[in-house]
Amino acid sequence: MAPYAAHMGLQNVGAALRVRLPELGERMAERIRAEVESYADESLIPFSSLRESCEDNADLLLGRFAHGAEPDVGAALQTGRIRAEQSVPLADTLHAYRVGFELFWSEMVEEAHRHPEVTDAELVAGSSEIWALFGRYAEAVAAAYREASAELALQREARRSALAEALFTGALADRTTPWEAARQLGLPERGPYAVVAAAVPDPGQEPLPGIETALRRFGVPSVWRLLPDQQIGLVSLQHRDAEKMGLRALRRRRARVGVSPRFDTLRETPQALRFARLALAGLPGAGPGVSRFDDSPLAMLVAAAPAESSRLVEVTLGPLLALPEAERARLLQTLGHWFGSGGVAAEAAERLFVHPNTVRYRLRRIEEVTGHALTDPIAVADLGAALYALRLLPS
Asked: Where in this chain does the record put each RsbT co-antagonist protein RsbRD N-terminal domain (predicted)?
């Protein structure tokens, strides 16, 4: 801004108003409260704080007119930051500044009438100067507001992310209960809930973009975390149609997704996350799909007893797993497709792109190695459970 040549008449006006600065600040604050709705809330913006802000800004303006001082936007920057912290809309903050400037200039003009030395030309120059100052102050307010808002958003997101991580891992600090965390995350304090785990195609890329917003539109609150290999979410199922709408939203995103069983207390979140990850690991094929843990009771048994399931694998499939890698992989693949085909060798052969006799030969080889006959229902149940456990608990 070009240097302002202070005129003698307006210098006297500025000096006179400076004597009445507290009164001027109070009148500006009262006018703003009367004309800007969000400023009328005493709990949001205490009147004393508003009056002090008005005095500070008016004092800087008077210094400009009285002494030709360089514009100091420090008070405007402070106001912008404070209003952002108070969550006052930026539009209301700028409106308040305009109201304050209008009142300030009207007071300048009224005081000028008491000073015969003030010429019309000086008032015209002063009017131009005041609105140039308003533009500069408004820019400062908006810049500080946006910067503070961005910082606050990052802080809120960091806090939200930390609370979500604490719920997923069960690592909440002693001073924060799961229910307090739920309130801060916008989740209901009571279930039912479900946990979702989706495979990340590339690090940093969300497999479920916009999922939180989409669910919120249906009245379904949720909280999400993006990890290097998965996007995980905690979803409230209190809404009557939450599960149906949630599954529809998940399927539309064409990702690989696992969903935990319902659970009632947030302390169960870490276990539910494990179930969701197991459901994701058990999703067949390589394409998109949604696998619900409750769709397979066997999966629940395996996840509930990992040590016993590992022992089942060792006892039932141990000899097969001891074979050379190529043969082991071939026989396990064939056995998996045989189960997936309902025990029909011809259908398994189609899936494997081999002759049915090849499948039958491999099945006989499996019987020979494991000692379990595929004609014995109990043996088939053991092999099926062991194969499922091997897929879900590869370690």
From this structure: 22-160
C-alpha span between 386 and 321 (Å, rounded) = 12
- The answer to whether the CB of 108 falls within 8 A of the CB of 126 is yes
What is the 3-state secondary structure of 105-159? Answer: HHHHHHHHCCCCCCCHHHHHHHHHHHHHHHHHHHHHHHHHHHHHHHHHHHHHHHH
| Model confidence pLDDT, tens digit, residues 80-89 | 999 898 888 9
The answer to whether 340 and 348 are in contact (CB under 8 A) is: yes
Which range has the worst mean pLDDT, 214-218, 252-256, 304-308, 328-332?
Answer: 304-308
**Neighbouring C-beta atoms of residue 376, cutoff 10 Å:** 12
**Which amino acid, residue 377?**
P
Q: Residue 267 pLDDT > 90, yes or no? A: no
* CB-based contacts of 113-119 (< 8 A; 24+ apart in sequence): 114/16, 115/9, 115/12, 115/13, 115/16, 117/8, 117/9, 117/12, 118/7, 118/9, 118/10, 118/12, 118/13, 119/7, 119/9
With CA atoms as reference, report the closest residue to 267 among 390, 176, 158, 388: 176
Task: Give pLDDT tens digits for 117-175.
Answer: 888 888 888 888 888 888 888 899 999 999 999 888 888 777 777 888 888 888 775 66
Q: Which residue has the tokens 């400037």?
A: 101
Residue 246's identity, in one-letter code, is: G
Collapsing DSSP to helix, strand or coil, 79 comes out as helix
Which stretches within the chain are classed as H helix?
8-19, 21-35, 47-67, 74-85, 90-112, 120-169, 178-185, 211-217, 242-252, 269-281, 297-304, 306-321, 325-340, 345-352, 356-370, 377-392
| Residue 270, number of CB atoms within 10 A of its CB | 14
CA distance 358 to 356: 5
| Residue 147, pLDDT score | 93
Which pLDDT band holds residue 327 (cuts at 50, 70, 90)? very high
